[in-house]
Write a structure and sequence with these properties.
Rossmann fold, 7-stranded parallel beta sheet, 3-stranded mixed beta sheet, 48% helix, globular, binds nicotinamide-adenine-dinucleotide
Length: 346
């Protein structure tokens, strides 16, 4: 598999829209996706043209998207051509603090759209989610056209966000593009309070030789996607020629469908001692209202979406990368210990 940069560049060349002149603002850059998206964007457009912001942690710009004045001043100062708006409160956390979830996920996004119009930003990326679907959507191969009647505050805000995207496109000619992500799985960063977090945590537990307590039932299948695919697909989507974007309120972005027992079985092939206990909690109830698999044929047809990882290749990559990272961390700590001994002895 080639690098994200190679594949995005070749797809951009095909569509004739690859551009080196973007100035990009990313909100919520310290999250699971932002930590991987920002370096990919920097590689693509140059470090000086990508501005990473978050309300906390290490970010070049400290920015709370619910603070309208600070947000507008930042956008006016930076003059980005694109905003990747990742800042959000995720599903499991959102159910515990619905007021904050609404303020960040809807009002914060509304602030972004208003500031984008006021400051002549050309494009906004809005990451939506499979949580926009509720129990009345078909569970298998859920199409983009399925009803969006979600039962979580997270899903309700995201569904409203999708409609806002279409409205701003129509009323203000703002090129807002929306992808409905499934659970994103990667070795590069830690998840931040979503219902599918288990699908990353299970690999870390396995590599550390720990038993895993799974918050979802063994057979609770959900749509999943490799982080590498998600990042590549997102940049390809944002660079696709405007006439290829035919669904103003968003596209399903599919990878594969898997239940906790499927991940456990992949892990057990490599780590036969791996042990898992299923203790379904409130996250299992959230997952029960979501699709088990996505139909992403519209994205494939309209702008050429094509995932590269499946359950098997992603599981192998997760185990390999996490084990390598852990070995490197252990070697680093041993080196520091030896250096300290040498200093003490000197
Ligand atoms: N990770 C997934 O599996 C997944 C799936 C579907 C959709 N999404 C969407 O993708 C986006 C990124 O997800 P993620 O997994 O990286 O989320 P995350 O929870 O890991 O990170 C979100 C980031 O937003 C920041 N943030 C929260 N409130 C903020 C505010 N008021 N102002 C500025 N920053 C704020 C947090 O500090 C955090 O760094 C979100 O919009 C999420 O809804 C993610």
């Amino acid at each position: 598999m080639g690098s994200i940069r190679d594949s995005v560049i070749s797809s951009g060349q095909e569509s004739g829209t690859a551009t080196r002149t973007q100035r990009v603002l990313v909100t919520g850059c310290n999250g699971q996706i932002g930590q991987v998206l920002v370096p990919a964007l920097q590689e693509r457009y140059g470090k000086a043209n990508v501005f990473d912001s978050d309300m906390r942690g290490a970010a070049s710009i400290t920015l709370d998207v619910t603070d309208v004045a600070a947000l507008t001043a930042t956008i006016r100062r930076l003059q980005p051509t694109q905003i990747y708006h990742l800042a959000a409160v995720l599903s499991a956390t959102g159910e515990k603090d619905p007021v904050r979830a609404w303020q960040v996920n809807l009002n914060g996004y509304f602030n972004i759209l208003e500031a984008a119009v006021a400051c002549d930003v050309k494009q906004v990326f809005f990451p939506s989610t499979i949580a926009v679907y509720g129990p009345d959507a078909p569970r298998e191969a859920t199409p983009d056209s399925a009803p969006t009647r979600p039962t979580t505050i997270y899903g309700i805000a995201k569904a409203a966000g999708e409609n806002l995207a279409a409205w701003y496109r129509q009323k203000h000619d703002l090129d807002v593009r929306v992808l409905r992500y499934p659970g994103i799985i990667g070795w590069e960063s830690s998840p931040g309070g979503g219902t599918t977090d288990y699908a990353v945590e299970i690999f870390h537990a396995a590599v550390r030789g720990r038993a895993f307590r799974c918050p979802l039932g063994a057979d609770r299948a959900l749509p999943m996607l490799a982080m590498q695919d998600a990042i590549r697909g997102t940049i390809e989507f944002m660079e696709a020629a405007p006439e290829k974007i035919r669904q103003p309120s968003g596209y399903n972005l599919g990878g594969f469908s898997a239940a906790p027992a499927d991940f456990a079985s992949e892990i057990s092939r490599a780590i036969p001692d791996f042990s898992i206990e299923y203790v379904p909690d409130h996250r299992d109830a959230i997952a029960a209202s979501w699709p088990a698999g996505l139909d992403d044929s519209s994205a494939r047809r309209d702008w050429g979406w094509q995932p590269q990882y499946d359950l098997h290749t992603l599981s192998a990559a997760m185990l390999g990368h996490i084990a390598a990272d852990q070995a490197a961390a252990a070697a680093d700590s041993a080196f520091r210990g030896l250096s300290q001994v040498a200093v003490n002895a000197a």
